[in-house]
Write a structure and sequence with these properties.
The protein has helices spanning 35-49, 74-84, 121-124, 128-135, 169-182, 202-208, 219-228, 243-255, 295-306, 327-341, 352-360, 375-381, 387-392; strands at residues 15-19, 26-27, 30-31, 53-57, 89-91, 111-114, 140-143, 165-167, 189-193, 214-217, 259-261, 265-269, 277-280, 289-293, 310-314, 346-350, 369-371. With 393 residues, it is an alpha/beta fold. The strands form four sheets. The chain has a six-stranded parallel sheet. Strands 11-10-9-15-16-17 form a six-stranded parallel sheet, with helices on both faces. The termini are close together. 47% of the residues are buried.
Length: 393
């Protein structure tokens, strides 16, 4: 996989098809979180300095092959234009009617954006003819959408066989950061894994437990383990029929000498919108929900982070959307941030909720790397080969 930063490539005056992931949250036509946009600005600026002609291609939402006006990329185009202080022309014409001759209307025009690729059925079907149409607009293809690279879509996979293809700056950053915690590990290494469903992350746990020294399980996922151990969890969320998987996790941990940490004290509530109170695990009532970790658990996690050289964090410790149940996640974020700034650890965080937590506490710059990818992040950690990365290789 070769990067656009390689000195071997002549990018001057070349038409670059730049695949980005601009799937940002939109509310009434306004962007509520610009993280994904901010991360790809360096690639755009790099290509502009190389005198390239840039054609941005991306998607937003799930329009399922139909034009949906509320999922237009136009407001995103306008934000990018402001951030790079350069005109970005928006082309909302049907791609089938376009030719490479009418993409750039003047010699001075350097950057354009095409409309949402998922308005076309061929995109998600990885259709060769659709990929050929996209490829006809450019001379070089650049994938800077790591978070889409687990998808076998036309603008991610098929197109790479039709043009000289390279990786973008952000995609390289993602892969390098993830390699540091999967193959170029500085031990001891700790994985803090949370969120609501154990089923979505079982592959990650099984793959990483062989390599990590500590696996901290928090959030709704921990409830499955607590229930398996015979601890009453009231009406807390958990997944049924997962006892065998929990058994496997403990079997793996013993085999590979990975210590598993689970909550020892918890913050409970009657419902997710209510107030919280601290309880030991043996005091949770039938009508109560476990919604955060308590101070004893937090202290143990902090000590584990202090004894680590590398930390991966994916998933909150509780229902952080309610400030009554955010303290566990906040304390984890603070400790990782503090140790990263002192160069005591190499820290990587990823996944939608984790990014939302870090954003909420304004700690984005305090981590070595924060991945905006969700599915691709988890699949890479599972050890899967991502179709979009394989296509570049």
């Amino acid at each position: 996989m070769e990067s656009i930063q390689s000195n071997k490539i002549n990018l001057s005056k070349k038409k670059i098809l730049l695949r980005l992931d601009l799937n940002v949250p939109l509310k009434n036509g306004k962007i509520t979180d610009t993280n994904r946009i901010d991360k790809i600005i360096p690639t755009i600026q790099f290509l502009l300095k190389k005198n390239s002609k840039i054609i941005i291609i991306s998607h937003v939402g799930r329009p399922k092959g139909k034009k949906v006006s509320s999922l237009s990329l136009k407001p995103i185009c306008e934000i990018i234009s402001k951030k790079i202080n350069e005109k970005v022309s928006f082309i909302d014409k049907d791609l089938k009617t376009l030719s490479n001759k009418n993409i750039f209307t003047t010699e001075k025009e350097n950057i354009v954006m095409l409309e949402n690729l998922r308005f076309y059925e061929g995109e998600e079907k990885n259709n060769k003819e659709f990929a050929k149409k996209l490829a006809s607009f450019g001379e070089i293809y650049v994938n800077d959408a790591f978070s889409c690279s687990h998808r076998s879509h036309a603008s991610v996979v098929e197109i790479a066989s039709l043009l000289p293809s390279f990786s973008g700056i952000q995609l390289n950053s993602e892969i390098n950061a993830l390699k540091k915690i999967t193959s170029q590990i500085e031990k001891p290494i700790t994985c803090i894994i949370g969120g609501s469903k154990i089923s979505t992350k079982i592959g990650v746990i099984k793959n990483l437990i062989k390599k990590f020294d500590n696996m901290v399980v928090v959030g709704g996922m921990a409830n499955n383990i607590l229930k398996f151990q015979g601890i009453k969890i009231g009406k807390s969320i958990y997944e049924k029929n997962f006892d065998q998987i929990v058994k496997e996790i403990f079997s793996y941990s013993q085999k590979f000498n990975c210590k598993i940490l689970i909550p020892e004290d918890v913050i409970i509530g009657k419902n997710v919108d209510g107030k919280g109170s601290l309880k030991s695990l043996d005091k949770v009532e039938e009508d109560e929900m476990i919604l955060d970790i308590g101070p004893i658990t937090t202290e143990k996690i902090n000590k584990t982070i202090d004894s680590s050289k590398t930390v991966l964090w994916n998933g909150p410790a509780g229902y952080f959307e309610n400030s009554n149940f955010e303290k566990g996640s906040l304390e984890i974020a603070k400790k990782i941030s503090e140790n990263t700034k002192k160069n005591k650890i190499y820290s990587v965080a990823g996944g939608g909720d984790t990014v939302a937590i870090i954003n909420k506490y304004k700690m984005m710059k305090d981590f070595n790397f924060v991945s905006t990818a969700g599915g691709a992040f988890l699949e890479f950690l599972e050890g899967k080969v991502l179709p979009g990365i394989k296509a570049l290789e």
